Amino acid sequence: MPTFKLTLAYDGTDFAGWQWQPGQRSVQEELEGALERITQHKSRCMASGRTDAGVHALGQVVGFQSPTRLSGAELCKGLNAELPDDMLVFEVVEAPPDFHAIRDAIAKRYRYVIQDGRPRDIFDRKYVWHLYGRLDVEAMAEAAKSLVGRHDFVSFQTSGSSRLTTERTVLDLVVERRPAEFTDRVIIEVEADGFLYNMVRNIAGTLVEVGKGKQPVTWPAAVLAGRDRRAAGMTAPPQGLFLVWVEYGQCGMRSAECGMDEGHNDEQGLD
After folding, report:
1. The 3-state secondary structure of 181-238, one letter per residue
2. Which of 52, 104, 266, 271 is catalytic?
3. pLDDT tens-digit readout, 45-75
4. Which of 44, 60, 39 is nearest to 247 (CA)?
């Protein structure tokens, strides 16, 4: 049975998350339903990470098997005709038989978006965390440096997830202010070889404490060393979080290279 690799984006606002939830709308349910209508076959879709309710994706990667004779391009076109307006498939390609969306991922990148200051942008409220006070981005960027590298990130993991290890390698962590149409945005981007539950949102909440001047730039390093979730900042709200891309070693491709115009893994997902 052919194996396929699918790349899609979705607005997580009206979803209970990626995973099937009884009586609630999920990305997985919508995608599997559309696939069944097209192929007349039930396919189980596995995403690179299970995003939580309200979390968005710019380049989520999904693996599935189907006996269909339709090509990847035909599946892509058919899915976009069947899927709701808050989901979009960029590409469907046939993958090696042993392709595994979670196991084969070697890196992911997440973006967290903050609007700080007044007035708040009411048209972007579902996609940013709004804070009325202006943040010190330079202090946040300096504080973030201590989180790059191989560390035990248990202080940044929300309870409710069992892992063999809480060590992860953060490959890149950027904090910067970027222009936007209404007003500028504070962007936190984290790239790592894997993420703990709510890791990015907890990093964002911790760095914001530094940006507010409530904690020194050395505080995130102390939180990391303390290995105690209670020592870190709050869990930032879900609407500011975006899965940007997932990278796979076996195909040498990032999901963002599959047709996305983003200038450029679960968190809120369990990778």
Report:
1. CCCCEEEEEEEECCCCCCHHHHHHHHHHHHHCCCCCCCHHHHHHHHCCHHHCCCCCCH
2. 52
3. 999 999 999 999 999 999 999 999 999 999 9
4. 60
Q: Is residue 138 part of a domain?
A: yes
Q: What pLDDT does 162 receive?
A: 67
- 144's CB contacts (< 8 A; 6+ apart) are 173, 174, 175, 188, 203, 207, 220
Examine the domain organization and report whether 207 and 225 are in the same domain: yes
pLDDT in tens, 229-254: 999 999 999 999 999 999 998 544 56
pTM beyond cutoff 0.85: yes
CATH code where residue 17 lies: 3.30.70.580
**Within a 13 Å sphere around the CA of 54, how many CA atoms are in the beta-carbon half?**
14
Annotation marks residue 98 as catalytic:
no
Residue 200 structure tokens: 């990015």
